[in-house]
């Protein structure tokens, strides 16, 4: 596992809301880099809601860091990713890459929320779920699930071809109270609510 994930944000990307910069710094993954690329993509628009999702993955003997930032502006959903990379043909040293995508709100086709709620009979209104999965689709990535079709006759052995479903899934983040804490789940719920409301108005 590589130590050290970049300098603090300080005055970098001063156009971003202080709360968002604090969350990016708390994530601990090259915050100055993440703030810089996000600031370019936001391009001076107001950030009305945001979600910072750090993730650690294990690849053989390597521990790799990743962070995803979602920022909602009046007109767009801005998505930023940053990843670790081992030395390759681009660099003889380990390095990070960061990318952004700005999606017009009118292009967002679906906002899917999956709530996991323990002991539902005891659920109190307003209490965040144990886990929330937020999936947003805007048509850039689609998944097709196929399976053999049938006619409903258990004795029929004719070939009825295939049937399937198409799922639009450009980004999916799963926030768990056990892994990230209840506050992180609450923040994800607040962002999901803001994004859902923004796409309804478009």
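^ Assign residues to that structure.
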């Amino acid at each position: 596992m590589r130590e050290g994930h970049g300098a603090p944000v300080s005055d970098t990307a001063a156009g971003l809301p202080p709360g968002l910069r604090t969350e990016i710094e708390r994530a601990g993954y090259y915050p100055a880099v993440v703030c810089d690329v996000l600031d370019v993509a936001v391009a001076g628009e107001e950030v009305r809601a945001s979600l910072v999702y750090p993730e650690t993955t294990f690849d053989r003997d390597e521990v790799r860091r990743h962070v995803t930032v979602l920022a909602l502006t009046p007109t767009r959903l801005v998505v930023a990713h940053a990843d670790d990379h081992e030395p390759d043909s681009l660099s003889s040293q380990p390095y990070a890459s960061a990318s952004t995508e700005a999606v017009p709100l009118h292009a967002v086709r679906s906002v899917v929320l999956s709530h996991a709620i323990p002991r539902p009979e005891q659920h109190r209104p307003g209490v965040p779920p144990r886990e929330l999965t937020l999936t947003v689709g805007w048509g850039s990535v689609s998944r097709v699930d196929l399976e053999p079709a049938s006619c409903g006759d258990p004795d029929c052995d004719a070939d009825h071809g295939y049937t399937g479903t198409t799922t639009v899934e450009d980004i999916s983040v799963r926030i768990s109270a056990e892994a990230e804490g209840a506050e992180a789940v609450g923040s994800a719920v607040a962002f999901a609510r803001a994004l859902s409301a923004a796409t309804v108005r478009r």
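The longest helix spans residues 182-200.
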